[in-house]
Amino acid sequence: MTLPPEFALIARHFRPLAGPGALELSDDAAVMTPPPGRELVLAADAMVAGVHFLPDDPSETIGRKLLRTNLSDLASMGAAPLAYLLTASLPRDLPPDWLAGFSAGLAQDQAEFGISLLGGDTTSTPGPMSFSLTILGHVAPGQALRRVGAMPGQDIWVSGTIGDGTLGLAVLLGELPGEAGGHLATRYRLPRPRVALGQALVGLATAAMDVSDGLVQDLGHLCRASGCGAEIEAARVPLSAEAAALLAARPELLPRILTGGDDYELLFAAPPEAAAEITARAAASGVAATRIGRFLPGEAVVTVRDARGGAIPLGREGWSHF
Amino acid sequence: MTLPPEFALIARHFRPLAGPGALELSDDAAVMTPPPGRELVLAADAMVAGVHFLPDDPSETIGRKLLRTNLSDLASMGAAPLAYLLTASLPRDLPPDWLAGFSAGLAQDQAEFGISLLGGDTTSTPGPMSFSLTILGHVAPGQALRRVGAMPGQDIWVSGTIGDGTLGLAVLLGELPGEAGGHLATRYRLPRPRVALGQALVGLATAAMDVSDGLVQDLGHLCRASGCGAEIEAARVPLSAEAAALLAARPELLPRILTGGDDYELLFAAPPEAAAEITARAAASGVAATRIGRFLPGEAVVTVRDARGGAIPLGREGWSHF
């Protein structure tokens, strides 16, 4: 009895990614012993061609982007990564090499982040290719970082740099100058989830989330959860050299930088006295952390101030699918 | 600050489904304490409009079908359901009532199967709507039912009835006579995962899986995993009254019944001396179990025999996406 192509495809491209508990992807489900004495942290994200990535993005980066956006969710909760499940809905006429690149990219990230495939599903689709990934991580009981917990007077921190992802998308669409292989485009295609920093912030940050739909909108979510307001100083928002150069030439990009999506940096709150420790732990985690403002009493309003203290009008605050 | 429509949509239609650990869907991830002393069982399935369900299927049944196909995976492992994560990729022009029906259907099944929503993601898509669901269940350590374990001489069992789903699809497509609200069409839209039976078979069945891509093909998977062959007697395969009536009028439907997908029944192996106990436990679980053949020594070949013992040619053995 020969196997139909669907099963040959799974055996060739996905089975090599399977780790402990996956039963070589040959049973109906995975069986996993949860880490003793830990809470599980779980998140799921979907990605659709033309919405979350460009249809001509290299297949090597597409799976990695989805895995990394999910890792970023774990990072924001302070969790250590454990394993993931992946569903892929693919056109029937996919070029033969496409899946080889896709799975090779995932294998690379599995090694980098110490994680493996637990299970999933592969189906055909008459529409754009789409993926969904569920990630599992773990954290000490009661220690997960939440969006609730920021207090007026505490500092607003952000990791890494803001705006690279949205500017990288503009570069890839030809709306801004730049190389498809350059820093900004690479940041769009390959987010850098702050997994080590997230875990280092447990017990230190009072609230945290990841910035995925735009800094201002996401800060608003954190304010709503915590019941406070916030103001940030635009000049303090950390930018990459590439983003800073573009902004210097085109000051009108500022709202896009502050409200564009695809940053996948950590946004978190901490009391002022924790500043030195945060800076040290961030450095030990291999990424900078920058104070960009403070939480305020009152309504969940986010104000962005210019160098003279004036409020900067932004138009929209971030990305919405609907 | 007003929330963009995406967040209002989640709050209205998905937050009411959120259960323990979901943090009201307002954090980046869910946090769950795994059941102490149990292994976790995890599965993920995707569904695409036009592939796994009909675009004009009622929205009340679409989410339930996906949840039930995942519950069927848990059932096949002998696991008790715990919680699920859902990603939904939806057209921007979805009618307002569509999601209300979708979530109402899920709420109904959450109550029926004692399960709740843990997290997920909602995105837009320019293509057909698609969904992915990851389900979590639990089982006593080392007790999960697997596809490996069937032995030559053991009986082949199947729960419920075979062929209703594929015949129901044909009815809905107008290829066979029948009502859209009738038994067969309902079986296509709403599988009946054998969750209670699966758990009752732990320690009794030697191997198990669910039939989702056609009885003959799926039995072949079980044979390959267990390293044996199988023969089934077509006349013993349990049919609903509706399927039996169609088959009597159109004997050429037999291959479709034996190889069509969407059964979501349990297929399992057990030694002959367990027969009485299996029949009793199945009855206690509210579903019939039927012996349809036996496992044989040798290669993983599945033979379907007619009443005179001759092999019935089937053409394809089951569904493949590629």
From TrEMBL, chains A, B:
Binding site for Mg(2+) 4: 28, 73
Keywords: ATP-binding, Kinase, Magnesium, Metal-binding, Nucleotide-binding, Thiamine biosynthesis, Transferase
Residues bound to Mg(2+) 2: 45, 73
InterPro entries the record matches: PurM-like_C_dom, PurM-like_C_sf, PurM-like_N, PurM-like_N_sf, ThiL-like
Domain of life of the native organism: Bacteria
GO terms classed as biological process: thiamine biosynthetic process; thiamine diphosphate biosynthetic process
UniProt: ATP binding residues: 120-121, 147, 212
Swiss-Prot/TrEMBL catalytic activity: thiamine phosphate + ATP = thiamine diphosphate + ADP
GO molecular function: ATP binding; magnesium ion binding; thiamine-phosphate kinase activity
Enzyme class at the top of the EC tree: transferase
Binding site residues for substrate: 52, 262, 319
Record Pfam families: AIRS (PF00586), AIRS_C (PF02769)
Protein residues bound to Mg(2+) 5: 213
PurM-like N-terminal domain residues: 27-139
Residues given in the record as Mg(2+) 3 binding sites: 28, 73, 210
Stretches assigned to the PurM-like C-terminal domain: 152-299
Sites where the protein binds Mg(2+) 1: 45, 121
Pathway noted in the entry: Cofactor biosynthesis; thiamine diphosphate biosynthesis; thiamine diphosphate from thiamine phosphate: step 1/1
Entry's EC annotation: 2.7.4.16
PANTHER family the UniProt entry points to: THIAMINE-MONOPHOSPHATE KINASE
Function: Catalyzes the ATP-dependent phosphorylation of thiamine-monophosphate (TMP) to form thiamine-pyrophosphate (TPP), the active form of vitamin B1.
Family named by the database record: Belongs to the thiamine-monophosphate kinase family.
Note: Reaction mechanism of ThiL seems to utilize a direct, inline transfer of the gamma-phosphate of ATP to TMP rather than a phosphorylated enzyme intermediate.
The protein's name in its UniProt record: Thiamine-monophosphate kinase
Gene: thiL
